[in-house]
Each structure stands twice: as C-alpha cells, then as structure tokens.
Design a protein that fits this description.
Membrane topology: Multi-pass membrane protein
Radius of gyration: 18 Å
Subcellular location: Membrane
Protein name: Zinc transporter ZupT
Main location: membrane
Shape: globular
Pfam families: Zip (PF02535)
Structural class: mainly alpha
Helix content: over 70%
Strand content: under 5%
Number of helices: 9
Length: 250
C-alpha cells in the first residue's frame, strides 16, 4: 500500500488536470454538440457504481461486518449530500449564456464550489489507489471524464465576462487542483492511523461518496447533455468493462 502513495497522487493530479482540459475545449469549440458527454458520463457512472458496490463495499463488509460497513457507507453518502447543500454548484447545459451578463462573480463562485466538491473526490481516488491500484486507475479515469464538463462550466462564463482566455483557464485549473489537495490531506491525516479497520472504514466511506456523486451529479448531468438512453448506453458499457476488468484482475 505504501508503494502506491506516489502513484495515487499522480493519478489524482491527472484527474484534476482534466478540469483545466475542459476549460480549453470550451474555447476551441464555442458551440459544441456535447451529446457525446452523455455517453462518457454514463460510462463513468457505470464504472464508479460497479466498483463501489461490487468491490469496495463488499471488501469492507468482509472485514468490518455489516453494521460497521453500512454506517461508514451512509456517512459517505451524507457527507456529499450536506456538502452539496452547503456549497451548491451547477454545470453547463451545453450552451453559454449568450448575453454574458454579470457572469464573472457567478463564475468565481462556481469555481469555488467545484473546488470544494473536488476535495472528497481526490481523497476517494487516493484511498482506493493506496488500497488497490487496479481499482484506483479506472476510478481516476471516471473522475477525469466527470471533470471535463466541470472545467467547461467554469471557463465559459468567465471567458464571456472577461474575454480573457488565460484567466478563465487558470480558474478552471485551480478548481481541478483541489483534487490532489484532497488526496494529500487524506494521506497526511489517515496514514499515521492506518490499520485494517481504518482502511476498510475509509473504503466503505469512499464507496458512499462515489455512489452519491453518481446519483447526485453524473446521472443528472449526463441526461442534461443528451438523454437517458445515451446515458444508459454509457452506464451499461461502463459496468460491462469493469466486470471484465475485475474478472481478469482477480
């Protein structure tokens, strides 16, 4: 597990950089047909849900027992739920406001909200990667796919408000870099106390975080870009890919 710490930080950083990539895409494709994001986000959802329930939660339950695993899983769900209530944030619906009125303040607040939401996502990637790198890699990819439209959501309003591509891109980048920060905080806080119980409690907690992210963010956002049929195609594909991948790894 200790050998995976550096790799976990690299994976989390790469996932966070996808937010900045989303910001760049928004400049070069002013009015993109983003229905393909329905499939991509559906795929990310399938990957994360399958891993959360089939692998992470099942593994934690074997070590902790049903009651403890359920408690930490629910704690993960509630953490994202309350975080979303305290710091709400929204995503693009595929088009920027054509009038671009009073968008600068809204863009800054949106960047801040996404950054705060990225902290537990970074912690999730790091903790899973430390426990099992073969699971950390697909989760990092799924989070990275999810981060691309978030980068667009930050950059397009700021670019409309300021006509400054560099500034808009910079704020998108900063919002994404909250993910490696979340990974670093998770490692620093948990590493000194990491026993089998703490590790598996963290895994159950992370599983709850991942499931709530899927239901609260990925599925609604994916449907807003296209429709539920495109989302479901991606979701089923993600589950099938992870079924095959986990069967090969195990």
């Amino acid at each position: 597990m200790m050998e995976n710490v550096a790799t976990a930080l690299i994976l989390t950083t790469l996932a966070g950089l996808a937010t900045g990539v989303g910001g760049l895409i928004a400049y070069f494709v002013p009015k993109p047909d983003m229905r393909y994001l329905s499939v991509s986000l559906g795929f990310a959802t399938g990957v994360m849900i399958f891993i959360a329930f089939v692998d992470l939660f099942s593994e934690a339950r074997e070590v902790l027992g049903n009651w403890h695993a359920n408690i930490f899983f629910i704690a993960g769900l509630l953490t994202i739920f309350f975080l979303d209530k305290v710091v709400p944030h929204s995503h693009m619906n595929g088009q920027a406001d054509p009038h671009c009125d009073r968008l600068y303040r809204g863009g800054i607040m949106l960047a801040l909200g996404i950054a705060i939401h990225n902290l537990p996502e970074g912690a999730a990637v790091a903790l899973v990667s430390m426990a099992d790198l073969s699971l950390g890699i697909p989760i990092a990819i799924a989070i990275a796919i999810h981060n691309i439209p978030e980068g667009m959501a930050v950059s397009v309003p700021l670019y409309c408000a300021t006509s400054d591509r560099k500034k808009a891109s910079f704020y998108s980048f900063l919002a994404g870099m909250a993910q490696p920060l979340g990974a670093i905080l998770a490692i620093l806080i948990l590493m000194p106390f990491l026993t089998d119980f703490v590790l598996n409690a963290s895994i159950a907690f992370v599983a709850g975080i991942m499931v709530m992210i899927c239901f609260d963010e990925l599925i609604p956002i994916a449907n807003s870009y296209g429709d539920e049929h495109l989302t479901n195609i991606g979701l089923i594909s993600g589950i099938l890919v992870m079924m095959i991948a986990l069967a090969l790894f195990h």
